[in-house]
Specification:
By secondary structure, this protein is an alpha/beta fold. Helices cover about 30% and strands about 25% of the residues. The protein has a domain of about 140 residues: Rossmann fold (3-Layer(aba) Sandwich), CATH 3.40.50.
Length: about 240
């Protein structure tokens, strides 16, 4: 089957090698290995509870790994504090948005230091998210779910990342907003960002991904190029455990 073809080796923006992580005595990540190619979208798909969010949080330094390495270029992130990841060009759009309810839109976009040459200026972001410009003085707690999603993406981009991690960015969104998120991902990928997307919505993941990784029971069990996937049903069955 096409989904059994391994992804070709490419220059990796982010290299995850044999990463393990625990929550107390619970072993959640079991030797995760994955290369995230530069300037492409890599989607991690899988059922709830397989460790996708834990992996993202481990990459960002929120959950400490108990084994393995995570490289950006020649730098191993293991042991670096969470804020050190941002200095290496990592940014996160977290699951559930996690905006600061008592801050305005403008204040969210002022959290990152201004960096010379950052293409994601306030003006550029408001051009991408005109609704945020209309509500720039509004407190985040007064924003709709869709507006909070836009704000979470804009906040991450304002840091001028080279690698953007997006954890379930379409969760709870109406179809029109899901399509808007798809267009945003394509736009920033084409601007040169490397994107690691965690997504339970397989159709959405396939609509934006260049590479797809299937995660089960805390490990990556399959990696394939999007263009090699001609049997979406087989891929879905693999995710659901019907292809074992």
């Amino acid at each position: 089957m096409a989904i059994e073809r391994r992804a070709a080796t490419e220059q990796a923006a982010l290299s995850i090698k044999d990463v393990h992580a625990h929550y107390g005595s619970s072993h959640v990540l079991h030797g995760v290995t994955l290369a995230v190619p530069a300037r492409k979208v890599t989607a991690i798909v899988g059922r709830n509870g397989v460790g996708k969010t834990t992996l993202v949080n481990t990459i960002m330094g929120i959950v400490p790994p108990t084994g393995g390495s995570i490289f950006v270029g020649a730098t191993d992130l293991v042991g670096l504090p969470a804020y050190g990841r941002g200095r290496l060009g990592l940014a996160l759009v977290p699951q559930g948005r996690r905006v600061f309810r008592s801050l305005t839109v403008d204040e969210h976009l002022s959290l990152a230091k201004s960096v010379a040459g950052n293409p994601f200026t306030r003006e550029w972001l408001f051009g991408l998210f005109p609704r945020l410009q209309e509500r720039r003085a509004a407190l985040a707690r007064t924003l709709s779910g869709g507006e909070q999603s836009m704000l979470a993406i804009a906040r991450a981009l304002s840091t001028n990342p080279g690698i953007l991690l997006m954890d379930e960015p379409t969760e709870g969104l109406a179809p029109l907003l899901v399509d808007a998120v798809r267009k945003i991902i394509v736009t920033i990928r084409d601007m040169g960002l490397s994107i690691l997307l965690v997504e339970q919505n397989l159709a959405f993941a396939l609509s934006v991904a260049d590479r797809v990784a299937v995660m089960k029971r805390g490990a990556i069990v399959q990696v394939c190029e999007r263009d090699d996937i001609d049997d979406v049903g087989a891929l879905s069955n693999l995710i659901l455990g019907k292809a074992e």
